[in-house]
Model the fold of this input.
Amino acid sequence: MNKLVNLTIDGRKLQGEEGQTVLEVARDNGIDIPTLCYHEEIEPYGACRLCLVEVTKNNRSRLVTSCLYPIEEGLVVKTATERVISNRKMLMELLLARCQGVKVIEDMARKLGVDKPSFKPEYWEKNECILCGLCTRACAEVVGTSAISLVNRGVNREVAAPFLETAEDCIGCGSCVYICPTKCIKMEENGDTRTIVNWKATFKMQKCQKCGKNFAPVKQLEYFRKKLNLPEGFFDVCPDCR
Done:
């Protein structure tokens, strides 16, 4: 067990393990801090900035992203000061203007007391992607293929395959689809094929030799068979029949 660190969050005296972030300790103790780009199985990135909190150290206060900020002995954290809430509301207004009609954004904005953005949506190109990077990080860190990445800069920044063409390294696992907070990555299954629409990638599905159900892309199964050094035919049957 790592060394225990004493800190205060919203007036509560708490302990966390050395190496934990403010967000992790807060969540371990039932303190809600909103996030859109955070997942416990992936390295934090701090893209959405919604997890901002105010920390005080050596009598100086500042705003930090709680998903990236490591806890320290004697640290004082406040998660809902006027300064924090004001910044979160501004961020939600920007997201509302960008992601018009996206339910998860609208629900989170409403929870923060934001009904509509101050910015006129007609000046923004509607886009369900919030550039949180969860899909690219899951692809790189969990799956290990790095088939997609964040490309371009400024208003042209987007998630894409290399050269904006078909994602040749994609294995069709759908991790990007499942982890996307706004559900902007689309996956279609038709008979014995699966298509990840955003990456223009189509895959043949493996049919279970026992029940006949199509259960995963052949390319995905072959990728993990080789990665884990499994024998030929290991994935001839689905998990339900194995």
